[in-house]
Design goal:
2 domains, mainly beta, about 250 residues, Immunoglobulin-like, single chain
């Protein structure tokens, strides 16, 4: 017994260190047990999908769209955070939805990543095309004297719109489709023709018509000019139709 007492007196620090080490190990095991029990409450994510039909979406410029994601298993949605990526711009939400107003035209790509403490999954990529609606169609500009058997240029005047397809009906049975506002046409017989142009894109459609007077070769005659009036914020009307007019057909 004397020897034991001597040993304790000689190395009391070892005993204290051993007690502290035992305490630290017990605390670590307790925390690990709690952490393991907490992770057990999370679900292993299998997939996440954007709830949009197909892989392409068209939105008008200035429109707002709310996107939704679906997680599998569904009960894991409340424990996830969602990392949305729209053409390199990232945003994080803690619910499976994301709202965006599109102020610029162009093509964008959207995807979402769902993750919790034990797993992460990525969605498919959605292609979004933003298109400006067509409005402010002012008429068609063409030469003053249109003569037979010559190619003439016609131009649609339009203020707003993107990705427009122009469907031309020249009134003589001939039609044409262009991606630009200009088209060339040759009339083979003199007379009066009704030129019709339908402007279309994925979100809107507008129509403009003009009367074209076609003359025989060697004959020049100014046709009436047409005045297209702008909304109230415009200061003056502008001419459409023939590019110039004679004094006899002037508008006073």
């Amino acid at each position: 017994m004397w020897t034991t007492m001597v040993n304790i007196r000689l190395w009391p620090g070892n005993v204290i260190d051993a007690l502290w080490l035992t305490y630290a190990i017990l605390c670590s095991l307790s925390q690990a047990s709690k952490a393991s029990a907490g992770l057990a409450d999370y679900h292993d994510l299998r997939s996440v999908h954007l709830l949009e039909e197909g892989e392409n979406l068209v939105i008008p410029k200035g429109g707002r769209k709310e996107f939704h994601a679906k997680v599998d298993p569904p009960e894991a949605a409340d424990e996830c955070r969602f990392l949305w990526s729209l053409s390199g711009v990232n945003r994080t939400t803690y619910r499976p939805s994301f709202s965006k107003e599109f102020r610029e035209t162009g093509v964008f790509h959207l995807s979402v990543r769902a993750e919790n403490r034990i797993s992460a999954v990525d969605s498919q990529r959605l292609r979004i095309k933003v298109v400006e609606e067509i409005h402010g169609v002012r008429g068609v500009v063409y030469p003053t004297s249109v003569q037979v058997n010559r190619r003439w240029s016609f131009t649609v005047l339009v203020n707003h719109g993107s990705d427009i397809t122009y469907h031309w009906d020249f009134g003589d049975g001939k039609t044409k489709v262009t991606r630009q506002e200009k088209a060339k046409h040759r009339y083979v017989a003199p007379g009066e023709y009704l030129l019709k142009v339908v402007l279309r894109n994925l979100v809107s459609e507008e129509t403009v018509t003009e009367r074209v007077f076609v003359l025989k070769n060697g004959i020049e005659c100014d046709t009436p000019r047409i005045i297209a009036f702008y909304p109230e914020d415009q200061t003056r009307p502008r001419e459409v139709g023939p590019q110039k007019a004679s004094k006899d057909f002037g508008v006073h």
